[in-house]
Amino acid sequence: SQELEQSPQSLIVQEGKNLTINCTSSKTLYGLYWYKQKYGEGLIFLMMLQKGGEEKSHEKITAKLDEKKQQSSLHITASQPSHAGTYLCGADSGRGNRKLIWGLGTSLAVNP
Amino acid sequence: EPEVTQTPSHQVTQMGQEVILRCVPISNHLYFYWYRQILGQKVEFLVSFYNNEISEKSEIFDDQFSVERPDGSNFTLKIRSTKLEDSAMYFCASSEGAASGTQYFGPGTRLLVL
A-B interface: how many C-beta pairs under 8 angstroms? Predict the structure, then answer.
């Protein structure tokens, strides 16, 4: 079965610094999703990537899917305290499959 | 902006009791899901629902669990005879349809079984 591994597990950065979170799949990714979770809240959709080499940006967050479609990275530029939370990657478990499998998450703290 | 809502936000129950977790998906969405997250563990898929029937379920989703869409707006997860290990955050999600549609999640219900 497919597994998603995220790294690092946790991250503490100073406000204004850049950071990168990685998500590696044991199998080819058909769809890769990034979500943000704040304590006590739901999963907030950030971005979806499907094509090898695809890159998407929203405000200061950029997500990329590698050409082989087995790894994705999430990059935050000039981090702010509002970026703090847990970032989760999720993937379609098969072509056209509606079941998402998940990484364990990366907990991000941003110190002002 | 349309959002998925869930009630209650927190539920405490005694072992062996039945609980019903409620969700209101986004109105024009056709696919509905339940996931759970045990503290410190990965989010786990429980069940997906489309066209008034279960389209897929995980091995976790045994006879203890059931889902229902009792009317045009609500989507419920019933857990019969709750066990201590059912304690988790339960998330409802919905998607518009077709393959690889983005799933939008509710805020979750935190269930504690004592």
Answer: 61
Question: In terms of CA atoms, which chain B residue is nearest residue A91?
Answer: B100
> Which residue of B41, B44, B56 is in closest CB contact with A98?
B56
B95-105 pLDDT, tens per residue? Answer: 987 555 789 99
CA closest to B46 among chain A residues:
A99
The order of strands in the sheet holding A71-76 is A4-7, A19-25, A71-76, A61-65, A55-58
| Range with top average pLDDT, A91-95, B28-32, B69-73, B78-82 | B78-82
Cβ separation A42–B31 shorter than 8 A: no
| pLDDT score at A30 | 82
DSSP characters for B27-70?
TT--EEEEEEE-TTS-EEEEEEEETTEEEEE-TT--TTEEEE--
State whether B43 and A44 contact (CB < 8 Å). no
Q: What is the pLDDT of residue B70?
A: 87
Average model confidence (pLDDT) for chain A?
92
Query: Do residue B4 and residue A96 have CB atoms under 8 angstroms apart?
Result: no
